[in-house]
């Protein structure tokens, strides 16, 4: 049955309207992945030299054993962000004499076709051949190789399991990411323990007890079967991606009910975000950006100028990621919106209200950065006002110029659907505008005045929001038919 499923997917690909575009994208991605693997191979070939310079006081094998666990924690985080879920439209097979185990086995098999599974072999293989094989013999070298392959497969199925569970409950993804972040901070920030020492505890013993290779092998097999039975139990989902939830009336969100019709539109927007992959990933990524400050604020070389950039992104990343596709999220029913009784002015007000709510929550979540000083939180608040006033208006202005549709069911990893020239142009004013004001004043020693000016501009735009909504509505009226025509091109 595996060959039959594969044949059906090939036919589906070649018969698609976008076959030419898909081939071009796959060729470009294939070339980029090949170049990346060449870089990884070069890094692996010279890994012994690199480790010797990084840890001159340690034996090469000890240093190597210490970095493996750190690598696989990083690998898991990357998989959670970038690795796509293998899918197969299973409904056409459910009424046929096709065993469910065959369908699930096919999905489990295609999950192995990821360059993430090849990466650790290319990276660590040369070191094992150059250093461990001559020093410890073929038995230990094979134990290391099988252990690394097994851990790669464990990470593969663990990441897929987390992402599948997260499709049903977004908190799962946040909890998993939080655990990884805490595990990293526990070592490198708070120094509670040493991941390097924990890694050596296993791989160091593997040098003298090669039979310990059974442990990662058992972990990989166990994670495979956890995935297998989870998929089998959810086989009736269309693409094993999300379960249909019982629809709830917007009136069941009391806070939004007080805003009337605009609140109803926001409630529908919230449902759209929570029920679909790509908009939900925009929200999840916004929550992950709350840790962005830890990258910059822990580095003493980063000045206050970077806090403008970090504060803008932490309190406004959802506005940027979600707002630039303002109409694309509704592409499948955009024609219906054009002929409905919904006033576009209310549509815009709902977007502003949604962004205000999410950015307010984001600002509250950044308040623990007061650890780095009260001025840090002050800068966050200034950029919060800037985002609500100016960046929201800029993002919605460029959204009027995006005519590319988005398939809500698709994930965000390596997905450029809906991305056009307007998104590239958008990045320049978003990043440059606050610095056009901040840097000249800071250069003359008026950095506090610069913050006041940024905050006042944000407040002015918030106060005059009705004026900007009117201008955006007029702009939309001139482009609505272009937008609708673009959304009809699948």
Quick overview:
It holds the Pfam family DUF5687. The chain has 22 helices and no strands. With about 500 residues, the chain is mainly alpha-helical.
Key structural traits:
2 domains, DUF5687 family protein, globular, 22 helices, 75% helix, 490 residues, transmembrane helix, DUF5687, mainly alpha, single chain
What would your notes on this structure say?
With 490 residues, the chain is mainly α. It folds into two domains: 2-233, no CATH class; 252-488, no CATH class. 75% of the residues lie in helices and 0% in strands. The chain has helices spanning 2-14, 19-45, 47-54, 60-82, 91-94, 100-110, 115-136, 138-168, 170-188, 195-208, 214-233, 254-257, 261-275, 277-288, 292-297, 304-323, 334-338, 344-366, 374-399, 421-443, 447-463, 465-488. The chain starts with a helix and ends with a helix. 31% of the residues are buried. The model is unreliable at 237-251 (pLDDT under 50).
């Amino acid at each position: 049955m595996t060959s039959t499923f594969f044949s059906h997917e090939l036919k589906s690909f070649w018969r698609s309207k976008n076959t030419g575009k898909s081939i071009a994208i796959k060729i470009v991605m294939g070339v980029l992945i090949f170049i990346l693997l060449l870089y990884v191979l070069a890094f692996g070939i010279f890994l012994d030299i690199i480790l010797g310079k990084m840890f001159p006081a340690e034996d090469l094998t000890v240093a190597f054993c210490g970095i493996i666990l750190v690598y696989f924690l990083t690998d898991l985080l990357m998989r959670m962000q970038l690795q796509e879920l293998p899918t197969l439209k299973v409904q056409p097979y459910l009424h046929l004499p096709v065993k469910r185990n065959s369908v699930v086995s096919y999905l489990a098999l295609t999950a192995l076709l990821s360059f993430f599974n090849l990466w650790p072999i290319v990276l660590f293989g040369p070191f094992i051949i150059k250093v461990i094989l001559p020093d410890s013999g073929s038995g230990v070298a094979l134990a290391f190789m099988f252990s690394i392959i097994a851990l790669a497969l464990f990470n593969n199925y663990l990441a897929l399991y987390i992402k599948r569970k997260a499709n049903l409950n977004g908190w799962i993804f946040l909890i998993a990411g939080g655990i990884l972040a805490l595990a990293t901070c526990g070592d490198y920030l708070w120094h509670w323990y040493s991941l390097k020492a924990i890694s050596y505890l296993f791989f160091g013993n593997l040098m003298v007890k090669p039979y310990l290779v059974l442990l990662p092998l058992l972990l990989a097999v166990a994670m495979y079967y956890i995935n297998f039975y989870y998929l089998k139990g959810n086989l009736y989902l269309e693409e094993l991606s999300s379960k249909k939830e019982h629809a709830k009336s917007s009136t069941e969100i009391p806070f939004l009910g007080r805003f009337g019709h605009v609140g109803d539109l926001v409630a529908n927007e919230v449902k759209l975000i929570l029920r679909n992959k790509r908009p939900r990933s925009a929200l999840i990524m916004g929550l992950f950006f709350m840790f962005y400050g830890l990258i910059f604020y822990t580095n003493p070389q980063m000045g206050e100028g970077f806090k403008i950039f970090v504060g803008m992104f932490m309190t406004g990343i959802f506005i940027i990621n979600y707002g630039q596709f303002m109409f694309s999220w509704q592409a499948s029913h955009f024609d219906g919106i054009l002929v409905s009784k919904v006033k576009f002015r209310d549509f815009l007000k709902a977007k502003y209200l949604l962004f205000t709510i999410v950015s307010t929550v984001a600002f509250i979540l950044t308040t623990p950065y007061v650890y780095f000083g009260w001025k840090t939180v002050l800068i966050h608040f200034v950029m919060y006002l800037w985002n609500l006033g100016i960046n929201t208006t800029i993002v919605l202005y460029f959204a009027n110029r995006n005519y590319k549709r988005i398939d809500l069911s698709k994930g965000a990893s390596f997905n450029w659907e809906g991305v056009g020239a307007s998104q590239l142009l958008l990045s320049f004013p978003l990043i440059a505008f606050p610095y056009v004001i901040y840097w000249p004043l800071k250069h003359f020693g008026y950095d506090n005045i610069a913050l006041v000016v940024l905050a006042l501009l944000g407040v002015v735009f918030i106060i005059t929001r009705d004026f900007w909504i009117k201008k955006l509505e007029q702009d939309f009226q001139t482009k609505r038919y272009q937008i609708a025509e673009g959304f009809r091109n699948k």
